[in-house]
Amino acid sequence: xxxxxxxxAYNTRLEADLAVAKLGEAGIDAFIVADNLGGTFPxxxxxxxxxxxMVLEEILEEAAxxxxxxxxxxxxxxxxxxxxxxxxxxxxxxxxxxxVLILLAVSIGTTLYAxxxxxx
Length: 120
Hints:
Blueprint lengths: L3 E7 L2 H13 L5 E3 L10 H5 L2 E6 L3 H8 L16 H7 L3 H24 L3
Antiparallel strand pairs: 1-3, 2-3
């Protein structure tokens, strides 16, 4: 079995699908790795590092140049290996970050309540 490596990670499935399509047009096979409980909890992607686009290790640099051709990322360096949630939060103001954290806490609290009541 050949080794694969992560070429990019995205916050949404659509962005990851577009990257895979871009690689496919260049003749590079790629696939997406996602840990979102089978699609039932898509917010999980913000915690687990996003939708990861994977390619064969030996063509990682070529794939990165193709994926990031339209972005302001120097060729050969690829996207920083930060989790998707940190990349997302870095773009927000402190007030927006607080709002995201409150929504996340309410979501987790509601889910835990539903589980303990046997309604989920």
